[in-house]
């Protein structure tokens, strides 16, 4: 008896190791819509230092891919939506894209590209259907190009879709199906993915559920603490991620594709820009997700390991805030690669490791002059200008700098503009209102940040060498004469 039981335990253990082993560690999304992005080599080191083995990109930037060379990190490259139409209309364009942005890196550079993401959430309702006719043909052309290049067995196509391509008529996942207006299109895409051994990629955002619905039960957005689970034919849902994911599983199953692999292309929680976007909630959500991820538990309809990419690696201060002010704060790391909170990826290491070798600008801030009059008619247009051209998403109700007084607000806006413009003197010249200080104006959680140096942020260096050359020339001129 005992022997049999031991064997059974061993087999179960072995089986779980095999299952868990199939999905490599967690992936992350690496977006680069920042005014001062970290150098790709710094980011790749950051990924390695944190044991991250998979990365999802939104384009196929060659500097980024070069930095990933021989890193051992698996890569999903991306095709932006604005390229879909040209790739849909031209097999040749698709072949060029694959040749330049996949084949070249795989063969010569040793970049481990595994997926091509064709478009990014192309069926979001805010796009008004703009990409509905081009997404599938682009997908088909890219797949043909991959086949022609001989890479199709190694590199799979997919389309990262927003979770509103499917819905449920009730709160139960079992009532799930694809959105009626794109139902046929979704079936064609799903069939194409299935025929080509490619996965369905979906972005799932419990934060957005909470953001959009004031009555959404907060605990249901997380992975612990929700008491009144939803019973769906004996399967109990105590968190919206599982329910959302399984709504997709039902939609696939109902239409004959119940076994199509699913990748969670984006999942995460922002830390600023909204009352529900803060460090505590983000830590709770991401750690909750990671603990389940590591356990390989899966969802009620799809037990077993989940394949997922956290959204996102680093904050991006140049993203559109059309979705909301939180949009620039999804990073596990701040813009400078410093961790925001403790997070365990399940290895022996217990926290996140920050980026190393980051160079900051000088310890200087631009603030409102203490003598400035708040009723000055230049105040409002100056703040508006600064916020429009920099980043004021940490101001406002419930945000990290939401408790600043009016003067603090104005200073925050001025400083953001000054830093985004690399602390140029001319960027702290709000008429009679601003002054540069070397005293950090940060208060508590409200940080007045100092920007980092980037390659493009060295106008002085160029100016310097230029003047030096001029001096030499002058010297030459006078000596010769
Ligand atoms: C390769 O990808 C880059 C970055 O996304 C893009 O700008 C470029 O147009 C692509 N090359 C081709 C040949 O399509
Ligand atoms: C979608 O339609 C709305 C309302 O008609 C419009 O305001 C918006 O600019 C459109 N968006 C796109 C991406 O076409
Ligand atoms: C500070 O700025 C934010 C965002 O513009 C605004 O909502 C808030 O009311 C301002 N607070 C004060 C005290 O001026």
From TrEMBL:
Occurrences of domain X8 (ranges): 364-448
A Pfam short name: Glyco_hydro_17
SMART domains for the chain: X8 (SM00768)
Keywords: Cell membrane, Disulfide bond, Glycoprotein, Glycosidase, GPI-anchor, Hydrolase, Lipoprotein, Membrane, Plant defense, Signal, Transmembrane, Transmembrane helix
Coiled coil: none
Signal peptide positions (record): 1-25
Annotated membrane topology: Lipid-anchor; GPI-anchor
GO cellular component: plasma membrane; side of membrane
Catalytic class of the enzyme: hydrolase
Keyword Transport: no
Spans traversing the lipid bilayer: 463-480
Xref: InterPro entries: GH, Glyco_hydro_17, Glyco_hydro_17_plant, X8
Reactions this protein catalyses: Hydrolysis of (1->3)-beta-D-glucosidic linkages in (1->3)-beta-D-glucans
GO molecular function: glucan endo-1,3-beta-D-glucosidase activity
Record localization: Cell membrane
GO biological process: one example: defense response
Family matches, as PANTHER family: GLUCAN ENDO-1,3-BETA-GLUCOSIDASE BG1-RELATED-RELATED
Family note: Belongs to the glycosyl hydrolase 17 family.
Protein name (Swiss-Prot/TrEMBL): glucan endo-1,3-beta-D-glucosidase
């Amino acid at each position: 008896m005992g022997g049999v039981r031991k064997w059974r335990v061993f087999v179960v253990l072995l089986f779980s190791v095999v299952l868990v082993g199939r999905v490599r560690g967690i992936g992350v999304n690496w977006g680069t819509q920042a005014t001062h992005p970290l150098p790709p080599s710094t980011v790749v080191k950051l990924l390695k230092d944190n044991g991250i083995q998979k990365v999802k990109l939104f384009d196929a930037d060659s500097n980024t891919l070069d930095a990933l060379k021989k890193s051992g990190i698996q890569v999903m490259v991306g095709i932006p939506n604005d390229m879909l139409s040209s790739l849909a209309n031209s097999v040749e364009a698709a072949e060029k894209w694959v040749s330049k942005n996949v084949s070249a890196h795989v063969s010569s550079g040793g970049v481990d590209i595994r997926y091509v993401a064709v478009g990014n959430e192309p069926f979001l309702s805010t796009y008004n259907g703009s990409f509905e006719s081009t997404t599938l043909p682009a997908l088909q052309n890219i797949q043909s190009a991959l086949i022609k290049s001989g890479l199709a067995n190694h590199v799979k196509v997919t389309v990262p879709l927003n979770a509103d391509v499917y819905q449920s008529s009730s709160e139960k996942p079992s009532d799930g199906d694809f959105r009626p207006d794109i139902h046929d299109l979704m079936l064609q895409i799903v069939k194409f993915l299935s025929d080509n051994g490619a996965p369905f990629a979906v972005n799932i955002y419990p934060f957005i559920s909470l953001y959009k619905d004031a009555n959404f039960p907060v605990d249901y957005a997380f992975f612990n603490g929700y008491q009144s689970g939803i019973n769906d034919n004996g399967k109990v849902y105590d968190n919206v991620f599982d329910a959302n994911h399984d709504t997709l599983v039902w939609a696939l199953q109902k239409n004959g594709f119940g076994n199509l692999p699913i990748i969670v292309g984006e999942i995460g929680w922002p830390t600023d820009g909204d009352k529900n976007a803060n460090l505590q909630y983000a830590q709770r959500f991401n750690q909750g997700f990671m603990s389940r991820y590591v356990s390989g538990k899966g969802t009620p309809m799809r037990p077993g390991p989940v394949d997922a990419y956290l959204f996102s690696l680093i904050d991006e201060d140049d993203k559109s805030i059309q979705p909301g002010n939180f949009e620039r704060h999804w990073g596990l790391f701040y813009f400078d690669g410093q961790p925001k909170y403790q997070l365990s990826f399940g290895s022996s290491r217990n926290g996140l490791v920050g980026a190393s070798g980051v160079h900051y600008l000088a310890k200087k801030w631009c603030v409102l002059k203490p003598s400035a009059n708040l009723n000055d008619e230049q105040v409002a247009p100056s703040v508006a200008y600064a916020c429009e051209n920099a980043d004021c998403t940490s101001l406002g109700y419930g945000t990290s700098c939401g408790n600043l007084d009016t003067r603090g607000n104005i200073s925050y806006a001025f400083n953001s503009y000054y830093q985004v413009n690399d602390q140029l003197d001319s960027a702290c010249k709000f008429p009679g209102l601003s002054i540069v200080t070397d005293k950090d104006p940060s208060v508590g959680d409200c940080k007045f940040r100092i920007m980092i140096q980037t390659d493009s942020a060295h106008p002085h260096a160029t100016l310097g060498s230029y003047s030096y050359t001029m001096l030499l020339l002058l010297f030459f001129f006078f000596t010769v004469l």
